[in-house]
Amino acid sequence: MLQPLDKALFQNSFVEQMRGEASMDQSPRQVPGYHYSRVLPTPVADPQLLAWSEEVAAFLGLERPPERGPAVDALAGNLVTETMKPFAARYGGHQFGNWAGQLGDGRAMSLGELMATDGTPWEIQLKGAGPTPYSRRADGRAVLRSSVREFLCSEAMHHLGVPTTRALSLVRTGDEVVRDMFYDGNARPEPGAVVARVAPTFVRFGNFQILAAHGEKDNLQALADYVIRRYYPELGAPSPAVYVQWLEEVCRRTAVMIAHWQSVGFVHGVMNTDNMSILGLTIDYGPYGWLEPYDPDWTPNTTDFGGRRYAFGQQPRVALWNLMMLAQALIPLVEDVQTLRAALDQYVATLNETQHRLMLRKLGLTAQTAAEEDAALLGALPEALAEAEADMTLFFRHLSHATPSLISHPAIEEAVLQELLEAVSYMDAPEKHQKLRQWLGQYAARLRQETAAPEEIRAGMLAANPKYVLRNYLAQQAIEAAETGDLTLLNRLMLVLKTPFDEQPEHDELAAKRPDWAREKPGSATLSCSS
Ligand code: AMP
Ligand code: MG
């Protein structure tokens, strides 16, 4: 039976089991000695529900609320029910490679946990519900722009099969929030919003780092034990050996997440250690983007244009660096530091294995021929795609459709090749297509060694290569419309991105190559952390 959120029974394991400040003082400050601070959301003018994830709601046993009313008030922070014990977590982190000290939930607060229909507890967290002790000099708010982006993308990622936090609701606050989107002195008021996001826990690498940095060993161990007992119960009772196994498992899960990002062309944009989930979930959707022309150097984040630390091709390396920082924070818990080093090896092993497996699937190949030959074929693809400026999503989708024809003709027909290249490449110059043409020839030869029927191979590829992703300019168009009160595109994207592997021919235009006008447009091609 579904119930309204304002009648739901919340549990508060983090508040009850971790160490929290008793004071409700929400002024910005350092909070040494604690895992979290109890907080209260700051009410907003006129909460109105804009979007609702039916699937997440059903999983949590929640009924869809009307546009305004007590449930939406709770989703905006205007109503705190009796069983909610809102808290903001204390964490630190490395930002762009530098230790930044205490960061913490500056504009996020968890209301508590709801028991899902499968019997597991899920934390409900409001993003943008007002200041906390961790807000530093900022306002604790979020704009509609960034909230639409987080809501749409986290759900889209889930439906693509990428490990991620989820989103339950998007609420417009009725208040305005002033933001200088590109830090260029052009601050302007924007509509404010609150997203309710959902995950088993929002604990990040940075929660452990801040405790290690302050020498709070008891708190460090308590947090590790909490996470292991609740989310890694298969590891057994925490002990020095179990902490190592746990790090190994975090490495594995992080590797699986990164392999998925690389396989769909997702660029997180700001992979600071405070934005790395201890469960290996994609977390904190900010200046993220989707690869359109394949380019390992691409990042949507203007703040990162100098170093391109978080560019697409850097993500696997950065995740390892982040895991090393986590391992460092765990040193006080283990007997032999070398065991942590060995645990980190799991990351590379799992990443390579998963990336290889996902790529074989995308290409319709089964691991039956010489592994080295396949590795060479897969290894040559990125350069060929980059040189042709091929749209990552379109390339794999069109390739899927082309397989029966590639298989049945001994030589690739020029017409098939030409059509494919035209459909996917942003680059007119034929000489830039040379490498990809050559690669396609080798690929077709390899494909012909597969024993499955061509149609079966195609079906497998279509199930591995999405037709629809949240292209940067589409998100931006949905935002601009939503800002004027028009939710048509937002709703349409929500619907289409639920089944991204289905043809849905009536939505073809949402799978089109990025139009020229969107190439340099702020919000479509470039984003900043300011949201
Ligand atoms: P992010 O770059 O979104 O991961 O945020 C980095 C840190 O800044 C985190 O501690 C956030 O809670 C904090 N933060 C970001 N935006 C705001 C805001 N508008 N108000 C308060 N804190 C914020
Ligand atoms: Mg963050």
Automatic annotation (TrEMBL):
Keyword annotations from UniProtKB, A to Z: ATP-binding, Magnesium, Manganese, Metal-binding, Nucleotide-binding, Nucleotidyltransferase, Transferase
Question: Region labeled Disordered — which residues?
Answer: 504-531
Q: Where does ATP bind?
A: 104, 106-107, 127, 139-140, 197, 204, 284
Molecular function terms in GO for this entry? AMPylase activity; ATP binding; magnesium ion binding; manganese ion binding
Q: What catalytic reaction does the record list?
A: L-histidyl-[protein] + UTP = N(tele)-(5'-uridylyl)-L-histidyl-[protein] + diphosphate; L-threonyl-[protein] + ATP = 3-O-(5'-adenylyl)-L-threonyl-[protein] + diphosphate; L-tyrosyl-[protein] + ATP = O-(5'-adenylyl)-L-tyrosyl-[protein] + diphosphate; L-seryl-[protein] + ATP = 3-O-(5'-adenylyl)-L-seryl-[protein] + diphosphate
EC number(s) for this protein? 2.7.7.-, 2.7.7.108
Which sites bind Mg(2+)? 275, 284
Reading the lineage from the top rank, the first entry is Bacteria
What Pfam families has UniProt attached to this entry?
SelO
Task: Quote the catalytic residue positions.
Answer: 274
Say yes or no: keyword Amino-acid biosynthesis present: no
Asked if NAD is a keyword of the record, the answer is: no
The entry assigns this protein to a family as follows: Belongs to the SELO family.
Could you tell me what this protein does?
Nucleotidyltransferase involved in the post-translational modification of proteins. It can catalyze the addition of adenosine monophosphate (AMP) or uridine monophosphate (UMP) to a protein, resulting in modifications known as AMPylation and UMPylation.
Name the record gives this protein: Protein nucleotidyltransferase YdiU
What is the native source organism of this protein?
Hymenobacter psychrotolerans DSM 18569
